[in-house]
Specification:
This protein has 231 residues and is an alpha/beta fold. It contains seven helices and eleven strands. It has a single domain, classed as 3-Layer(aba) Sandwich (Aldehyde Dehydrogenase, Chain A, domain 2), CATH 3.40.309. The strands form three sheets. It has a seven-stranded mixed beta sheet with strand order 3-6-7-2-1-9-10, sandwiched between helices. Strand 4 and strand 5 form a beta hairpin. Helix 1 crosses helix 2.
Length: 231
């Protein structure tokens, strides 16, 4: 169940809360979660405000060994680190810019937030599965929805707006199996059906959905006496 989870931030959102959810969703467990926030699509009217909050949050994170008091530990292997940084380098070589400074020490990668992402970059389409997130400014809800759906993946997503009706309309149009309004993309509960659309898999598990997905529906009949057939 790969993912490329988008977060849409409307101009009427609680920006501080959105920043907290994005930082958690993008960098918790070093971004090594299928639901991790990979893309932020923010209305240009509040983009600078969101970036300010994200910078403060990201700069407070300490990267290091998981045995220490850190928020960001090491990614799973050097192979994974090389893959992640290869995607970041490709993006930077093609014009993307890091919003905050970052460090790389073997498998220890500090949070990376990139602006200036384009469709010419591998990171635009591919799941980083690491502590990497991109931020794009959008003009309106329509552009945000179009960009959110411009992915072969569709597992988790999120929308931030104080107008719940507006947020619900956006959520209904995002092509993902899961969408959270005013909450992080990383959100899982056992009683809820979990799964994605498009290249993020098919079917659901959790709650009653598991019974349907893991059951073969069959028809078996049994007769105890002879039956009259018309021919």
């Amino acid at each position: 169940m790969g993912g490329k989870a988008p977060v849409i931030v409307c101009e009427d959102a609680d920006i501080a809360e959105a920043a907290n959810a994005i930082a958690f969703g993008a960098f918790f467990n070093q971004g090594q979660i299928c639901m991790s926030t990979e893309r932020v699509l923010v209305n240009e009217k509040v983009a600078d405000q969101l970036i300010t909050h994200l910078k403060t949050k990201i700069n407070s994170f300490v990267t290091g060994l998981p045995t220490e008091q850190v928020q960001i530990a090491h990614v799973i292997s050097q192979k994974a680190a090389d893959r992640i940084m290869g995607m970041v380098k490709d993006a930077e070589d093609k014009g993307a810019k890091a919003i905050t400074g970052y460090t790389v020490n073997g498998t220890a990668i500090s949070p990376i937030l990139l602006a200036g992402i384009t469709s010419a970059m591998e990171l635009y389409y591919e799941e980083s599965f690491g502590p990497v997130c991109t931020l794009e400014r959008v003009l309106n809800d329509e552009e945000a929805i179009d960009k959110a759906n411009a992915s072969e993946f569709g597992l988790s997503s999120a929308v931030f707006s104080r107008d719940i009706g507006r947020a619900m309309d956006i959520a209904k149009r995002i092509e993902s199996g899961i969408c959270h309004i005013n909450s992080a993309t990383v959100n899982d509960e056992a009683p809820m059906p979990f799964g994605g659309v498009k290249a993020s898999g098919y079917g659901r598990f959790g709650s009653k959905a598991s019974i349907n997905e893991f059951t073969e529906l069959r028809w078996i009949t049994m007769r105890s006496a002879p039956k009259h057939y018309p021919i």
